[in-house]
Amino acid sequence: MSTQSTQPKPVQKESSGGAFYAGRGVTKTPMISHAKGIFFWDTDGKRYLDGSSGAVAANIGHGNERVRDAMIEQAKRFSYVVRTAFTSEATETLSRMIAELAGPGFDQTFLVSGGSEAIESTLKLARQYAVVTGQPKRSKVLARMPGYHGSTLGAAAVTGDPDRDQMFGPIMRVMPKIPAPLSYRIPDGYDVHSYADHCADELERQILAEGEDTVLAFIMEPVGGVATGALVAPNSYYSKVRKICDRYGVLLIFDEVMCGAGRTGTFLAAHHWPDALPDLVACAKGLSAGYTPLGAMIAPNRIVDKVVESGGFLHGHTYSGNPLSSAIGVAVLSELVNQNLMENAQRMGVILRQKLNALKDRSTTIGDVRGIGLLNAVEIVEDKATKAIFPAARQASYRVSEIARDLGLHIYSRRAASGKFGEWFMAAPPLIITEPEIGL
Ligand code: PLP
């Protein structure tokens, strides 16, 4: 008789095939056993500090018991009904909470399962609004190079990444791009301010070149994510962009998938520039802080009403407004507010950047430290004087992530668009981090 079934199964220590994921930086991924606060542990008992909140998602930290209890409570009652026919208290509460936190002018929330779905929703709502208000020629969505808006085809079409365009361009309609107002790699003859001004002027130039009545929207990350490494533009850029969009009837869409939900110290990153609020917002990651897949489009009545009156929004997903995800979202946002985590993100962000800048002064390979709140990036270079990027073969940013992981620190890194725009890792720990923990 075989004894196989009575043998204890060895604990699996790392990924072993049978599933594959995005990226190429990490070849063998450790298996995680449990997590608490800003830390998680693998099955060998090794501890990791979550320096990038996973993929800049775990805003309230791991193992939050109030979130777990809310999840259990909702699961005990029911987990799913289809949103087009039924709703739940959790779905209604979350929708209201998001709209209230987003503030005046953001009246309605459309719940989805993640960032790419939230982006798709903004693109489709914008298009449907244009059609039902008698502007059917408007179909082009301008975006920035570099930029990242997600993996689905609509989101990829507005993503500014030549590698992805080359690969996926033939199966989608790649949208026109204008330069992002980079603050570290500025072309000769400009400084940060004049280059940002130039980039905003490029928006106007591109609208006119495309034909102003054909441009539907302009989409941008108000604070950059991995594509630009936490890029923040000078204040004047935002107001200039807003005015240009108004001048030509172009909708302004902010991708706050990464920078929203409190990450930069305000609920929306847009709140840092109140004179330049967008028409539509896509939000995700921090809304559920990694406890469940969740995203949202936030939109004003003036747009939603027109679309609803015309017969309804021609877009939705099986898990739109999922009750279980909604209950988790309510618990996560309650933690964000009740623990003053946005204020903590502002204070800890200042301290984190001070420490990273001190490190930069001593380092030969840290070229730039930038960001706002707890959305920060550390740009690495081969030569600080020339800002030269490491050759691709060195896979420098991935190597930094791997070395950090070996040392017990998780950092999310990116070599953007074949390295043409630089490479960096994200310094974006959970918003619950304390000053002593930043020193760890
Ligand atoms: N937009 C931005 C700015 C992002 O950072 C991401 C993901 O990292 C997305 C969109 C896509 O979100 P998701 O991966 O949840 O589909």
- By CATH, the architecture of the largest domain is named 3-Layer(aba) Sandwich
End-to-end Cα distance:
54 Å
User: What's the CATH C level of the largest domain?
Assistant: Alpha Beta
What's the CATH superfamily of the largest domain, by name? Answer: Type I PLP-dependent aspartate aminotransferase-like (Major domain)
Give me the CATH fold name of the largest domain.
Aspartate Aminotransferase, domain 2
Q: How many DSSP-defined strands?
A: 15
Which ligands does the model contain, each kind named once? pyridoxal-5'-phosphate
Count of alpha and pi helical runs: 13
- Major sheet summary line: 7 strands, mixed
The radius of gyration over CA amounts to 22 Å
One letter per element, helices H and strands E, the order comes to EEEHHHEHEHHEHEHEEEHHHEEHEEEH
Mean pLDDT comes to 94
Can you list the strand order of the major beta sheet? Answer: 4-10-9-8-7-5-6
